[in-house]
Fold Lipoprotein.
Amino acid sequence: MKTSWRSASLVVSAAAVLALTTACGQDGGTTTGSQNVGATAAPGDVGDIGAGAGEGLGTGANGAQASPSAAEPAGKLSVSTNAEIGELVTDGAGRTLYRFDADTAKPPKTTCENDCATAWPPVAADDALAGEGIDKALLGEVTRADGTKQLTIGGWPAYRYAKDTAAGDVKGQGVGGKWYALAADGKKAQAAESAALSTRDDPKLGEIVVDKNGMTVYRFMKDEAWPKPVSACTGACLEKWPVVAPVEPEDTEGVVKKDLMTFTRPDGAEQQTVDCWPIYTFAGDKKAGDTNGQGVGGTWYAVSPDGKPVGAPKK
């Protein structure tokens, strides 16, 4: 499911002044209201393969030069999609291709030699073919120190990661804060940013609201929405039920935008609402898709796109 909240200072604007006097359910309910009450590796790490783990990545133990690694054939390149990383380039065998921040694209230059090239085998340029999703014009080559030709994509030298043992593996992503899967344009592969609030179809609860990280959003039945939002969750309650920070209405998908507003809590923090009802996440949900907060205490329920509590007993 385009994993930072916008700060409250960006949400509170001149429109907030008007919203201070606008009750929920009236026109302009999407503006801000006011509540009166109530294991990344160390930089330069090449993994456990080879002796080198320092920034230079060009020497073996005690500074001795290691034997250069021959570039491996690329085959027919294509674009694959990873749920966390997004669209990335794979070789003919389905192996992920990577780029190294210490290299350059203009002009193309490779700095990964010796031990580094053992952990990050360079991709040969000779047999590289542009498959579906790949622009042939962005494919090129760079001459390595040993005279072999290495494939470049958008100018960036391409590598595999030795710890990727199967097609689709992306174990090299983010290693040392310098290695990243290659996108088809040569940039770092990056998943599209999720909407700040969206919906998903839960197999048990139906369509419910989730935050940008896919975490389930909840309502507290002791809160109030009319005429203005009031949160009854304070103090220790907030440790288990963190508030959802303000979002822009246009940064939502599938959520009813009428009365999608924020309000000021007694502690001065801003909290998001759906249909004027304050919304929260649950500390007991450990991953996207969890609904461990559903029905807790008979007062906490997931939220439908129109702000109603899902599965709550009817009064």
